[in-house]
């Protein structure tokens, strides 16, 4: 019988859990429809499940009827979005992950102190767009180590910040190259890459050298899920694949394999992992060993706007 090494931690992080529960509670409290700007988290199954309960996902606020309830996604929004919500008389619930908010606050502070901010992240990613909106005149985006040579600096002092869901190793490489070019580059007061992203990458690093195949459960637009595939390959896995759901698995991937690693991105509910394990069991990989590399106990409270209304309704 083939073996499965099940990485732990995996799946939902505290920020994702908070954002999804915020939409669920808003639907319970205010009734459908509740509008959500962008995908609340980058997972197809989660979005479809919430749509089934009455959530309506939109790209921009002009799609939301005036006076409606709208939830901002875990990835954060630019200040201009908050202003637009006020102008359209929308009841806004901000489900931005507190760790993303921390980066926003750092960007505002360093910009006010006159720094040129080098933001390491993927251009166009919702989190980067939101952070950029805090201080567009101060921020230059660095999309990985290969873009360090393109940086044009001015007379302002330099500091780097980063998107929270990047590969830890690639970010460190980018920082290293930036420091070679700019020896006076300042670092943020604390690491921007979130604890959950780091823990999931460390868990994959632990199992990958023992695996013929590593399966990452997660959506293609989930930055941290895509990074897990890369980390698995860099850490010694023979092959690695990303799937949204078990039906996307291909039996041919496991021909000749004896050990399969399984993990999931930070926006993936455990039910999707259970589906993958059930399919692998059918194909002869029924011996599951959970490999625990860290314990996570962090919980974030719900957005204050929602807490206040839940309390007023006697449902807190």
UniProtKB/TrEMBL annotation:
GO molecular function, one term: metal ion binding
InterPro entries per record: LytB/IspH (IPR003451)
Keyword Zinc: no
Keywords, sorted A to Z: 4Fe-4S, Iron, Iron-sulfur, Metal-binding
Cofactor: [4Fe-4S] cluster
GO biological process terms on file: dimethylallyl diphosphate biosynthetic process; isopentenyl diphosphate biosynthetic process, methylerythritol 4-phosphate pathway
PANTHER family cross-referenced by the UniProt entry: 4-HYDROXY-3-METHYLBUT-2-ENYL DIPHOSPHATE REDUCTASE
NCBIfam families hit by this protein: ispH_lytB, PRK01045.1-3, PRK01045.1-4
UniProt xrefs under HAMAP family: IspH (MF_00191)
Protein name as it appears in the record: Unannotated protein
Organism: freshwater metagenome
């Amino acid at each position: 019988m083939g073996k499965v090494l099940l990485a732990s931690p995996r799946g939902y992080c505290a920020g994702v859990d908070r954002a999804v529960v915020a939409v669920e509670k808003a639907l319970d409290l205010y009734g459908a429809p509740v509008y959500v700007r962008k995908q609340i988290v980058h997972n197809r199954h989660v979005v479809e499940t919430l749509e089934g309960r009455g959530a309506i996902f939109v790209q921009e606020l002009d799609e939301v009827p005036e006076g409606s309830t709208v939830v901002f996604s875990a990835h954060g929004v630019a200040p201009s979005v908050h202003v637009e919500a006020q102008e359209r008389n929308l009841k806004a619930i901000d489900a931005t992950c507190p760790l993303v908010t921390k980066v926003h606050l750092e960007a505002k502070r360093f910009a006010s102190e006159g720094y040129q901010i080098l933001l390491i992240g993927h251009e166009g990613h919702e989190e980067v767009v939101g952070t950029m909106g805090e201080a567009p005149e101060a921020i230059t985006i660095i999309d990985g180590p290969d873009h360090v040579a393109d940086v044009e600096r001015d007379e302002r002092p330099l500091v780097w910040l980063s998107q929270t869901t990047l590969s830890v190793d690639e970010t460190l490489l980018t920082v290293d190259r930036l420091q070679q070019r700019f020896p006076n580059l300042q670092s943020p007061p604390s690491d921007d890459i979130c604890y959950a992203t780091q823990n999931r990458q460390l868990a994959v690093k632990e199992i990958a050298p023992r695996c013929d195949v590593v399966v990452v459960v997660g959506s293609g637009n989930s930055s941290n899920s895509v990074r897990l595939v890369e980390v698995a390959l860099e850490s010694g896995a023979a092959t690695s694949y990303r799937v949204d759901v078990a039906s996307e698995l291909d039996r041919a991937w496991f021909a000749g394999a004896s050990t399969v690693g399984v993990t999931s991105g930070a926006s993936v509910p455990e039910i999707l992992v259970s589906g993958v394990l059930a399919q692998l069991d059918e194909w002869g990989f029924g011996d599951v060993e959970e490999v625990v590399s860290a314990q996570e106990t962090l919980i974030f409270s719900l957005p204050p706007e929602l807490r206040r209304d839940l309390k007023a309704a006697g449902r807190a």
